[in-house]
Write a structure and sequence with these properties.
The complex is a heterodimer of chains A (about 300) and B (about 270).
Chain A: E1 5-6, H1 7-21, E2 25-29, H2 33-36, H3 39-44, E3 49-51, H4 56-68, E4 72-78, H5 79-82, H6 86-94, E5 101-105, H7 123-128, E6 134-136, H8 141-153, E7 159-162, E8 167-168, E9 184-187, E10 192-196, H9 200-213, E11 218-222, E12 225-227, H10 231-240, E13 244-251, H11 256-267, E14 272-277, H12 287-293, H13 298-311
Parallel strand pairs in A: 2-3, 2-4, 4-5, 5-7, 6-7, 10-11, 10-13, 13-14
Antiparallel strand pairs in A: 1-8, 6-12, 9-11
Chain B: H1 7-28, H2 33-50, E1 65-68, H3 74-84, H4 124-137, E2 144-149, H5 156-167, E3 173-179, E4 182-183, E5 186-187, H6 188-191, H7 197-203, E6 207-212, H8 216-228, E7 234-239, H9 262-271
Parallel strand pairs in B: 1-2, 2-3, 3-7, 6-7
Antiparallel strand pairs in B: 4-5
Helix pairs in contact in B: 1-2, 1-3, 1-9, 2-3, 2-8, 4-5
The chains are: A alpha/beta (about 300), B alpha/beta (about 270).
Amino acid sequence: MADKVATRVAYGEALAALGERYPQIVALDADLSKSTMTVTFAKKFPDRFFQMGIAEADMVDTAAGLATCGKLPFASSFAVFASRGWEQIRNIVARAKLPVVFALTHAGVSVGEDGASAQANEDIAIFRVLPYMRVIVPADGPETKSCLEYLVTHVDGPAFVRLGREKVPVVCPDGYKFELGKALTVRGGKDISIIACGVMVSIALQAAEMLAAKGVDARVINMASIKPIDRDAIVAAASETAGIVTAEEHSVIGGLGGAVAEVVAETHPCPIRRVGMADKFGESGAPAELMKKYEHTPEKIVEFAETILKKS
Amino acid sequence: MTRTRDENELKKIALQVRRHIIEMIYIGGSGHPGGSLSAADLMVGLYFGEMSIRPDDPKWIDRDRFVLSKGHIAAGYYAVLAQAGYFPVDVLKTFRKLGSPMQGHPCMLKTCGVDMSSGSLGQGLSVGNGMALAGRLDGKSYRVYVLMGDGEVQEGQVWEAAMTSAHYKLDSVCAILDYNNLQIDGHVSSVKEIAPLKQKWQSFGWHTIEIDGHNFTQILAAYDEARTIKGKPSIIIARTIKGKGVSYMENVAEYHGKAPDEAGYRKAMAELV
């Protein structure tokens, strides 16, 4: 069983490794490189790393300028702070369809003690609403590396990769290769579906075990590619099982839950319940405590699954 | 493209550019004449006297870059590009119309010769810095010109970028500030004072050059001077007149973003000879 590793750490390693093979890769950071782990790339390729200081809007547009001149920039900061440059991302990077990867860390309440101001719960929503923007939330270290490899070999406009602070277990099988627009069914099942992303995938698998003990066979889908989303996987879940519970370390408004609901409503309406941040700000606390307090738990997923099953 | 230092020739080109600006905005029914006219000589000086470019090879990898940070003067920009041969002059008449490459604010995906999309203020200098950093990494010697408005420097990001240019010693970056002292809501000094500009930019580590933005001798000399400065970026602070060339538009805030009516169009074209 592979060691737990934080997706931001996997990012740092992967970026440095990709930097060897792809000389056009450059990286930018806004004074957080020891947290976003771009420091690994910076040490290896100091000429190709641009420290922008505490100036996220400047970082975004500098990355845009680099992208117009043949570079493949990876711009990193905490997801919350990078969103200060959202208009720059919208009006320059996305509008001009520039190939910039925004690898943003510290997603969700698991950021922990720093508290609400640093915990991003809105980023999936504000990125997926941008035309041309690809949105990827890898569930574990290996998937992080695989999706970065994918992005570097399929350069086609901007992308947002959402990364977390805490170590997470490996949930994707050996040899798995990320593909844009393709979900990964990590557990087959016929009674109820759980569609999750990021850290919530392993939590969804725990929920599936708890449901199995009660005789409920849950399908667990890792929807790492949120935009473009795997519509077929969603329709299959909606038509083949009693309903869908979505789970994300993000607001229940506008993120994975919203995206799934949009597809379901237009194709195969079924009951849906969304697990995530219930339209609140977080607070300081240990990551595990916060995940529990804000109901990012297997118990909550089980509760919603049973609600759907009772009604069906 | 063959550059010219002949000021009479540059004045003739600038006159044509001004006629295009008035005509395209009048036909389009909207646009930003004031700032297009105030910056016309600066842009003509760049495209015809200073920049190393190939209009028949707009993506030439070694070209000098231009970023229109004050993107709303797209009319002026397109007039210069058309005159320089990036696309036929006829296309100007489709300004702002549905399906036209002449988008209201520059779009690099739709318009030949545009190095960067713009429209939201305060962003061009950051972009220019990125282009300059790429050039340095690749051992290129192209220069990057960024044209900003004066009201525009009220945007904080301009100063973030100014710090970056100086920190990275980007001497290939030449900013130009179109100092016409008018913005939408009135005189810049009464909306939010930006002076003293020279001292601000110098304190941010920039070389500063102050000129009359309608005097080609000074314009060309400023571009020459900027090119000689090593180890720091340069900014040309150009005193200009908003609406320059059309008597009833000169120094009138209203013509920031208003198209002339038919009578105004005829009057303007009669003056621009």
